[in-house]
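just leaving the lab so this will be short. what follows is a protein written twice so to speak, once as letters and once as structure tokens for the fold. can you read through it and tell me how you think this chain folds. thanks a lot i owe you, the record is right below.

___
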Amino acid sequence: MRHFRTDLFIVGAMVLALMPVRAVFGQTPGAPAQADLMPPPTWLFNDIACAPTLTTQPAGGLHVVGSQDAVIKNMLGPGDILVVSGGSNEGLQPGQQFFVRRNVLTFGKKGPTPLQPVTVHTAGWVQILGVDTAVATATVVHACDGILLDDYLEPFTPPMIAARVVPGNTPQYANMGHILAGDEAFENVAYTSHTINIDRGSDSGVVLGQRYLVFRDKRGMLNESPEYSKAYRGSAHQLPLVEVGEVVVVAVRPDYSTVEVVMAKDAISRGDFIAEIK
């Protein structure tokens, strides 16, 4: 019988309030109860707040349109004063904080649409300094990455963590989900503490701190190459799934969640299967 290491998941039981999306994914009955939430330790705060997400909606609302600088800058960071495309006419007030984000479209990718969600990169968060009728200025509180012109703003919500992880030691194979894309549309993560998205959310009963095993289906790797032995080609369709890692849910939306890698035997990739641990 497999023994699960619950101590590894304490660090990963995290949540970041992210923008809502709608897509169509499977349901999982018998949802576990959500553990109590608590503020994360200081050393963990920025990692959670910078985690990637997905969206089915085009970027709208407030955008970064420039900087208070003598030259034109396309990338901004700590020490820069941003100019925001809205002021008191948009309800902005000094002291308000906002995430700065951008939708990431890869080559040939359409969207965002309900059937084609795209990844959302969090560049950092800012605090409003001065407000005019139609524009405002803001200072960079934290930069996860370079902030670009036309990045959009969303209200900042401090991250929280689950006070305890969801218990259990038995993988559920009846209704397995899948790994989706990660930050900036990357399709592979290979190290612990990296984050990536899955096609299960609160509508499927997912809660913060929920754990999943990650499996690879090697049958999808088979092709007609003569490099494969006849024995392998003849039995490939019977090969079992291979366990490649474990992840824990760190953010939940209705139709998808963001998970953190807590153990990886190999790179965890888009399309890999996930089985909830109960």
